[in-house]
Amino acid sequence: MKRVFLVAALLAVTSCASNSGSMSKAKILPREAVASALRDEGLAPPRAVAGEWKQITKGKVVGATALATVGALFGGDRIWIGAGPRNDVPMEGYADLDEGGEVWSNDEKALFDDPALAMAEAVKRLARERSVRVDPVSRYSIVANAAVWRLDYDRMSGTDDYRVHYGIHTTVSDGGTVVQNSYCEGASQVKRSLGDWLANDRVEIRKAATAIGSRCADHWFEELGLSSMVVTEDSVRAIEQGVLQ
Length: 245
Description:
This protein is an alpha/beta fold. The protein is built from six helices and seven strands, in the order αβαββαβαβββαα.
């Protein structure tokens, strides 16, 4: 239900233009129509909005609970910050971030520190095999926004129980009008201690962000029905010339 409410709220926001004209209008189209338009007219180079990275640590929660308790004593209100289970299983489940296609080389597995930035690059790389050409003059554009990007724990007890959580909201626009919304969410299947996640300049977090980018790019293509195709020299040439339907 959380995902439904989030997407509904995002649709409500994007459907209203602000007085300053800074917000896009929305006219959501059937996914088949969007996929057909992208095949015919291509996609402008993908863009991304980096998320606000958050670390929800046990120490912070213990501190917040102590402050809330003191406030309750003086204010008379009963305040409780749960110290038990913190996170439900994501709607799309836990993600095995070791899986994935050949989007990144071995040297690029920790290339990004934000999943939206990684997704934008992954969409660009996957577009050719999904029969969509990247065309700077196309009126269709995609923006990936990391609405959720955090390190959080499952339970107060235990040590190796921190997961990376993510949620990427993606929009396709025709000029200034949003025509398609998508949301990719989840949490890492693997759990590590806080120290292990943060070690070596947060290399494991960067690996997770990079893998999430390709995972959500694939999710977006699949939602539109733009499944992978067998790439031949003729098909590549046709895509680049914009004649493949």
